[in-house]
Specification:
The chain is mainly α. It is built from 17 helices and no strands.
Length: 410
């Protein structure tokens, strides 16, 4: 299919790229709110500003996914995204009015939010046909996220929140350096035959559509938890340090999940859908425990389930998307999948979750999340039953002359 150097330095560069790109993003995700508060923004203004990200990602993910497939050079497209992110983060910290910050953040998120899905596609492209496992590379992202979250705190305390852009830029430049050391990939000619008509055919695959819709349902309470978990901890008398440790532990244990899934999980559609059924049940258990928590310490410890729930959902979803989507449209498929757990669900989880938290309390919010996860588990269970009974037959949903998915061993 392609020719590339499979030596260890190249593989090490891919791992280190993941470490630093995820480390870069946790700096912004974890500490940007402190800067906004320091310049005098209210909590309502901060909340509305941070809600831009999932909304912009709804449009940005398909855009960059399509052009990654069309250009057949994901390294080049990802580099453009990184350059745009690097330039715009400087403008964000130079803006001196709310309107200016709002506009620069829209542009910033247009380049930044699709970076995770395109990084997943980069990994899948390099390991395709090599025997390497996705999890052994993606776990470096979790390490980067967790370790940077702990290490960046004292650095930013010393420099001041206004210097977050410096730390962010240095990390992003290091990530770009490791990406430059990756070898070029030569794809087959068929990989370049990407058009909007072919992209639209992805939605004729009923299994893929149901996978995306159920994923949105299961992810809504998860995105709501990401937004309001820290407020819940503080509401129950916890501290900011407790919030930081909860984030650290939930991320660091994802490494074990990726290693275990790499070693034991079968790359078969029916098995993967069955795993999503179990993950959805565990999500329901997680939200039930959150609703019943009485202390901040309990909430912090419950976040340890994040590694099994979101870590499992993320890993299995990436693998399923790769099997459902024809190879030429892999980046677009990963972009659409990302929308199911960050974009659409992020908008719904942020807006509806905030309204529910404010008017009815965290307990009602988490009990509602539990019910959504149960519905998702029932849906994935029904998918598994049909796949187990009838097998996967993509030719019923797409044009067999144009769909390469049939060629894969399932």
């Amino acid at each position: 299919m392609r020719n590339m150097d499979k030596d260890q330095p190249s593989l090490a560069s891919l791992k280190l790229f993941n470490f630093f790109i995820y480390g870069t993003m946790v700096i912004f995700t974890g500490f940007f709110q402190l800067y906004l508060q320091d310049i005098g923004m209210s909590k309502m203004e901060i909340g509305s500003l941070m809600a831009i990200a999932p909304f912009v990602s709804i449009f940005a993910n398909p855009f960059w996914g399509f052009w990654s497939d069309r250009a057949a050079n994901i390294k080049r497209v990802l580099l453009i995204m990184m350059i745009g992110t690097l330039l715009l983060v400087q403008l964000v910290f130079q803006a001196n009015t709310y309107a200016m910050i709002y506009m620069t953040m829209i542009l910033f998120y247009f380049f930044q939010t699709p970076m995770f899905s395109q990084t997943n596609s980069l990994i899948l492209t390099y390991i395709d046909g090599t025997g390497q496992k996705f999890g052994s590379f993606r776990l470096w992202g979790s390490l980067g996220w967790a370790l940077t979250a702990i290490a960046a705190g004292p650095v930013i305390d010393h420099l001041g929140s206004g210097r977050i852009a410096i730390v962010f830029s240095v990390m992003l430049l290091i990530a770009a350096l490791f990406m430059f050391t990756l070898p070029n990939i030569q794809k087959t000619a068929s990989s370049a035959t990407v058009n909007l008509r072919g992209l639209g055919k992805l939605f004729l695959n009923s299994y893929f559509v149901w996978f995306i819709l159920l994923g949105i349902l299961v992810s809504i309470p998860n995105t709501a938890n990401n937004t309001f978990m820290s407020l819940y901890i503080l509401e129950l008398g916890g501290t900011k340090q407790m919030v930081g440790l909860a984030i650290f532990f939930s991320s660091i244990f994802e490494v074990a999940i990726f290693v275990l899934f790499d070693r034991f999980l079968k790359r078969k559609i029916s098995v993967l859908v069955g795993c999503l059924t179990i993950v959805s049940i565990l999500f329901a258990l997680r939200w039930l425990l959150m609703a019943e928590a009485n202390t901040a310490l309990e909430v912090a410890f419950i976040q340890l389930l994040h590694c099994v729930t979101f870590g499992g959902y993320f890993y299995v979803g990436v693998q399923l998307t790769m099997l459902f989507v024809p190879t030429p449209y892999r980046a677009s498929g990963q972009a659409i999948y990302t929308l199911s757990w960050s974009g659409i669900s992020g908008v719904i989880g942020g807006l509806a979750g905030g309204w529910m938290f404010q008017n009815f309390g965290a307990q009602v919010l988490y009990r509602t999340g539990m019910m959504l996860a149960i519905v998702g588990a029932i849906g994935f269970g029904w998918m598994w039953y049909n796949l187990h009974r009838n097998g996967y037959q993509p030719q019923l949903d797409t044009d067999p002359d144009e769909d390469e998915a049939e060629e894969r061993s399932l």
